[in-house]
Every structure is written in C-alpha cells, then in structure tokens.
Write a structure and sequence with these properties.
There is one protein chain. The protein is α+β, with helices and mostly antiparallel strands and 162 residues long. 41% of the residues lie in helices and 15% in strands. It has a 5-stranded mixed β-sheet with strand order 1-2-5-3-4. A hairpin with a 2-residue loop joins strand 1 and strand 2. Helix 1 runs antiparallel to helix 2. The chain is globular and about 45 Å long.
C-alpha cells in the first residue's frame, strides 16, 4: 500500500469529510503574499519575475566604480524601502549585487558581494533578521541589457512569493 503524504491525507480528508468549506479551503491553502503586500511591492516598483518579485535598484542606488559604500541618499532609500517592506510583513528577501564588466571577474564577484552586503546590513539595521536576508554577489554575469556600464553597478532586491 502506498505511503500517504500529508498532502494526500489532507486532500482525502477534505474530500471525504462533511465539513464546512473553511476546512477544505485550509487544506488547499498555499503560502503566498497578501493583497496588501503585493500592492506595496507594485507601489515601490517591484515587478513579478516568475514566482518572485524583483526590484532592480539601478535607478535608485548606483555605486561608484570599485566602491561598495552606500551614499547618504542611497542609505535613506534602502532604509525607507526596508521599513515599508517590514511594515507589511515582508521579512524574507534576497539581495543581489552586480558590477560592470570592467576588471577581473574574481574581483568583480567580491565587489558585488560587498555591495549586496552593504544593502543587507541596512535592512538588518532596520529590524529584519539577518538569516532572512540572503546575500548573493553575481559580479558582471547578469548585466542589464541596453544600459550604460555604470548602471550595472547596482543591487537588486528579490522578494519570494512566500
């Protein structure tokens, strides 16, 4: 006899039981973002990419060549965005750092990691848990198509469809 998984038991129980529709809905519930969270993501400029939401900060946060420090203006931008996300319960995200294509690939990987970490540190500073902010340096491997080189010195924030 095949082993029953939790999903099978729940589906079978929902099908066989004569219960209120709420129990059936509970068995079919999938985690995801709320309407309020999606509305905030849209207002902040996030776009759906597959199952996730992505915000490329190249129009808000750019880095000087070979630098990973945030300017005072960029710090304010990240702080405001982080507070807005945290305020609606969006607490898990991935921060991706990028570089332009100039220079050594190994150096660019490290630089992109430092850029992502600078943004992640700001997010943790406003109240997000460090383990919920994943940092990833992509170097120059994911350039934006058709933009100037300096626009690739950026960070993107990816929010999973929790």
């Amino acid at each position: 006899m095949p082993r029953k998984t939790r999903e099978t038991r729940c589906s079978r129980r929902a099908f066989l039981a004569v219960t209120p529709l709420g129990l059936i809905a509970a068995c079919q519930r999938r985690p995801g973002l709320t309407a309020e969270q999606i509305a905030l993501l849209r207002r902040e400029g996030f776009e759906p990419i597959g199952d996730d939401w992505s915000l490329g900060l190249s129009d808000r946060i750019l880095f000087a060549s070979t630098r990973s420090e945030l300017t005072a203006e960029a710090r304010g931008t990240v702080e405001n965005l982080g507070r807005a996300l945290h305020g609606v319960g969006i607490n898990r995200m991935r921060v991706e750092g990028h570089t332009d294509s100039y220079g050594d690939a190994a150096y660019n990987d490290q630089l992109s990691q430092r850029r992502a970490q600078a943004v992640a540190d700001m997010l943790v500073g406003i109240g997000l848990r460090q383990e919920d902010v994943v940092v990833q340096g992509l170097g120059s491997r994911a350039p934006l198509p058709g933009v100037r080189s300096n626009e690739n010195r950026r960070v993107a924030i990816i929010v999973p469809n929790q």
